[in-house]
Amino acid sequence: MKAEDVRVCVIRIEGTNCEDEMANAFTMVGAQAEKVHLKQLIGQAPASMQRSLEDYDVLAFPGGFSAGDYVRAGAIFGARIKSAIGSDVKRFVEAGKPVLGICNGFQILVEMGLLPAIEETMSESPTAALYNNNSGRFECRPTVLRNDNRGKCVFTSEVPQKSLLMIPSAHAEGKLMSMDPDFVQKLEDNDQVVFRYVCPDGSDAEYPWNPNGSPSDIAGICNPAGNVMGMMPHPERVMTRFTHPDWTRGYDSEDGDGKIIFQSVMKYLEKL
Amino acid sequence: MADLMIKRDVPFSLYDVDILSATDEQLGQISAEMSLSLSLDEMKVIRDYFKKEGRNPTDVELQSLGQAWSEHCCYKSSKPILKEFVFGIDRDDVLSKGDAGVMVFDDDYGYALRIESHNHPSAIEPYGGAATGIGGILRDVVCMGAQPIGLADPLCFGPIDHKGDLPPGIKHPRYLVNGVVSGIRDYGNRVGIPTITGGFFFDEKYTGNCLVNVACLGIVKREDLANNFAGGPGEVMILIGGRTGRDGIHGVNFASADLTATSDEDSRGAVQLGDPITKEPVMHACFEVNARHLITGMKDLGGGGLSCVVGEMALDCGCGADVDLEKVPLKEPGLAPWEIWVSESQERMMCTCKPENVQEVLDIFEMWDVLAIPVAKTTDLKRTRLFWDGELIFDMDLEFLTGGPVYNRPYTLPEVSTKEKEKFPELPSDKDVILTLLSDLNVASKEWAIRQYDHEVRAGTAIHPMVGEMNAAGPGDASVLIPVPGRMKALAAAIGCNPWFTEADPYKGGMSCIDETCRNLVAVGARPHAFTDCLNFGNPEKPERLGEFREAVRGIGEIARALNIPIPSGNVSLYNEAPGGNHILPTPMILGCGLMDDVRKAVTADFKKTGSCIFVVGKTKDEMGASLLFRKFGGEQGAVPDVDIDALKRYMDKLLSAMDEGIVLSCHDCSDGGIAVAVAEMCISGQCGAEIDLSAMMGSSVQRKLYSESNSRWIVEVDGMDVTRFTEIMGDDAELIGITKGNALKIKDNGTVVPLEDMIKAWNEPIWNIMGGAAE
């Protein structure tokens, strides 16, 4: 399909707050992005505003503090969407359509059971969680990510393997944990690890380069099929070089490091 | 007193207050017992008004007057002074002076700016006080139709390493800082507006009365710029957002009196409760009804709540209003009408619309699950009338109600610090001096707070609050936003304030605050374009305090006028005095905005490489008064830095044209700690040493050259290849003082060597160590 025909549903509820830049990121790579309130998808809006999930090609969950995140981050949004249109979402994923969750969006995908989803498309209850940062604080800082995916993830198809991207983080709960002691190994075996935090020279990250203490420095993962990805750092914030934190110290390209993630998914869709 | 309060025979709480037959003494009692904060003279004016009306007022009417005539609402002590010095700097590119000022950004957009104080609530309940401060300033920008794009929070506290006892009623500064920063973080991050700049000012004089100033910037399509008043009679007023409760009653009166040892118990009810997750959809829905041009005006409910917003929205279009007060949705049943009328519960806005658009407006709010209830209608009578189930409980002339008294209170001019009486302190080695100044809480890294604030959400932050190497950055001068996606046009924002100069010489201090703001903006390559000011001072009923205020405002007005830079919004916060009457440092907090056509030309303060030339722009004079050096090492008196406005203009023009040519590698404002600290900070952020030699500069004392805080100066790094062109542009206004080199700051004049790693440690660690360190 052509880029201009790609329709992106940027979904939001109260407290979602990164929808403008998420929509803008998709627009910058040629797609049509629409900000859609969950109520519009579940029949709780005036007729003219109602939307249907199946009319979209990409579903994107932006960052923020959905419903305030006063309970576990993402739990309320996750529960609300799953109870209302859980089967539609499952069908959407099984049709191979891309689903992206950034920051709070990642937390929502985990709460919904769409990630890590090691056994099935959407597990009934969450099998992982994003825990409080080791520092106990909200951390807004630059982070460097290495693409550790071996080719499955549709959001990194254009990113050279093992290459580094500067994608900033801003969260209080980003440590990916699971009850399963073999969790990381299983992700690794399934090629579900997408991004790891590293130092700027590519060596293993320590705080602050791993801002939350996530085991094995995991910053982003995908489902076994590779079309659902969640990550804590914010690629939509670095679509241009001029929002990088250190661009005045020199740069090669005017594109920001986040753009290639959105370009990757567009490439994938163009081939469909 | 009890016999003067006559309960009316209605099924709700309403009293007629017999002021017509009250003695003067009883008038005073009424004011005190109803917490009206009205003086006897003011009560007499009110009695005269009701004599003419031929009846006694209700408790609702008296409470409403207490709100409208408070210092906070009607600026009764400050207005004549503001009028004399700062009002009326008009330019064509001022688009609005509403609840927030709005200036031209480009042909299609305007930007909004506003600063406000939330001092007294934060002193009592730091978390809630700061959070609701953010909520309030956001609403001021939203009701211009503008999308908030950046928050800025300059804060003043007592020393956070205070040891020993504190007077009764005073909370430890460390506790206050923690609470305030958490409040800003949790509210700002949750609503998704980046906190892009701010500042911390620490001094003993803030121990009893901290300052929490909050500022917000916004962006609005010029065609969507909203009014803060109704369009005419016959319109519907719709109350939007949160429910009304007992939180935040008498907030404006609390803000218009000194803090006392028992403020904590007495006034906790004056602190409102914030809810960012109600606010966020309120903003979305307000933008939607505004962008569809369904409404005629909107205004936020801040100080005074409904009692202020209804009258102002009506009067500003020459109308009056009839309010059905029982329709206001409540948090709990049983509030008296007067409580509903003056409550400052958060997250509320009012909009006005034509009757035919009401349903469509309500549908949009419904979509966002935001409560919206029509509560009033505008009338062609210039009166506000309140009804409760049809019973008239309030009927007042709007001009009388909102007119308020104005006072020309007596003032005495302050004695200023002079060179003649100067006592230069004994100093340790310059290495020790530099490390000591770098670790002063006012200079040291604020990373502990900065990284708890999301300063990048909305993806428009081009120059961040910390600059230099990633995760090893140093202090920036101004933050820069690119608010319109796809456009390179940029908006810079910076705080400028020097309360110590202002205390030592309020007039020069006022000028210095503006000078510093301009320096910060120019340091990143932005041309200063507008200011908003929050004037935090002491009790205006004390002539010395009012004298300080008057002189500082005179300084601000004089320089702003000479630069022809407007101040389209601002705020005055008086009565900042601690229990026992200790007053704060006079603190004129300035937020400046600057414009740049192309963000790609922005400059940051970190040294970029070794081997470049270091210049100082501007004249370094023997002006040690109130300098960081004197404060730290016990110097006394001394000349407070003056501003040569013509020179400032010339330097700014030249520096900006050099930046436009792309030959400025880095640039940093020269302020606290003088040249020494400015160069050291550029070393820290650039992870690079410097060798400087001040022998060619005028003056005999190296230490005065190093630590003088003369205004209108910048440190600039220029590549050797561009030095000729740079000096061509700058002429005599820039002086070569050294090169970037090695891994230490070396001062050739006296052989001082300060290793880079010592400077980084001295600057980096103090606040982390006090507030709680990194994760490990």
- Secondary structure: number of strands of chain B: 30
Mean pLDDT rating of chain B: 94
The H-and-E topology of chain A, N to C, reads as EHEHEHEHEEEEEEHEEEH
Give the second-level CATH assignment, the architecture of chain A: 3-Layer(aba) Sandwich
* End-to-end Cα distance of chain B: 63 Å
Query: What is the percentage of strand-forming residues of chain B?
Result: 15-25%
Range of helix content of chain A = 10-25%
Report the span from N to C terminus of chain A: 6 Å
Query: Strands across the major sheet of chain A, in which order?
Result: 2-1-3-4-13-12-11-7-8
Unreliable runs of chain A, pLDDT <50, ≥5 residues? Answer: none
Main sheet characteristics of chain B: 7 strands, mixed
Query: Can you count the beta strands of chain A?
Result: 13
Low-confidence stretches of chain B: none
Radius of gyration of chain B: 27 Å
Estimate percent helicity of chain B: 25-40%
Structural class of chain A: alpha/beta
Explain what you see.
The complex is a heterodimer of chains A (272) and B (776). With 272 residues, chain A is of the alpha/beta class. Helices cover 23% and strands 21% of the residues of chain A. Chain A has six helices and 13 strands. In chain A, strand 1, helix 1 (19-28) and strand 2 form a beta-alpha-beta unit. The longest helix of chain A has 20 residues, at 75-94. The radius of gyration of chain B is 27 Å and the shape is globular. In chain B, the strands form six sheets. In chain B, strands 10-12-9-13-11-14-15 form a seven-stranded mixed beta sheet. Chain B has 776 residues and is α+β, with helices and mostly antiparallel strands. In chain B, helix 23 packs across helix 26. In chain B, a hairpin with an 8-residue loop joins strand 19 and strand 20 (490-496). Among the domains of chain B are: 2-72, Orthogonal Bundle (Helicase, Ruva Protein, domain 3); 605-770, PurM-like C-terminal domain (Phosphoribosyl-aminoimidazole Synthetase, Chain A, domain 2). Chains A and B meet through helix 1 and strand 6 of A and helix 8, helix 11, strand 16 and strand 17 of B.
